[in-house]
Prior knowledge:
By secondary structure, the chain is an all-alpha fold. 77% of the residues lie in helices and 0% in strands. The chain has one domain.
Amino acid sequence: MNWQWFYQLGSPKWFYQKTHYWQHWLGAFALMMLVVGAIWGLAFTPMDYKQGNSFRIIYVHVPASAVSLAGFYIMALAGAAGLIWRVKLQYTVMSVAAPIGAILTFLSLVTGAIWGKPTWGTYWQWDARITFTTVQFFLYLGIIALQQAYRNQNTADRACAMLALVGTVNIPIIYKSVDWWYTLHQPATLKLTEKSSIAPEMAYPLIWMILAYYICYVWLLISHTNAASLRRERKSSWVQALFSDRNATKVT
C-alpha cells in the first residue's frame, strides 16, 4: 500500500501549497454564513413564549459551545498524531487549535452567563456543565502556557500533546453532565436520535449557525496553521524560497 499521501498530509510545505490560495475564499464564505445566520436568528425567528427575546443568544452560545468541544478533540488527535508518527504539521495544528478553542470556550461561558441572568436570575451557578466547561477553558489555557514554558520546541509539543490527550476525558463529561446530574442547565435542544425539543423555525437558523461556526473554525485553523508553519520552518529552504519569490515580485 502506498502511504505517500499520508506523509504528504504531515508536510508543512505540501499543506501550505494546497491550502494557501483558497483559504481566503473560505474565510469570505465563513463570514457570509455568519452574517446570514446572525440576521436570520436575531431578526427573523419568533420570540420564545417563556424566555422572550433573551433566548436569541442561543445562536451565539450553542455554536460556540459545540465547536469548542469538537475543537478539543481535533487538538488532541493532532497531538496524538504528532506523538505517534512524529509529524511536525500535526504539532503545529495542535498549537494553533488551543487559542482558537480557548476563545470559543470563553465565548460560551460569557454568553451562557448573560443568558443565565434572565433565565436563572443569576449570571453564574456552579452548575455541572458550567463547571466542567470552565475546566475545559483552563485546559486550553494550560496547553497555551506549556507551549511558552519550554525553550525546546519538541519538548513543548510533546508535553502539550499529552495534556490534550488527558483532557479529552473532560469532553464526554461536559456532554453528558445534564443527564448524569441534577442540573440547572437545560438538556440538548437539538437531537440526532430523538425528536428535538426546539421548534423548526428556531432550529433551522441554529443549525445554520453551527455549520457557520464549524466553517469559520476550519478557516481559522488552516490560516493560522499556515502562518505558524512559516514561523516554525523559517530556516527551511522552501520558506526562504517563498519569501525570495515574494520579494522579487515586489521589486518587479
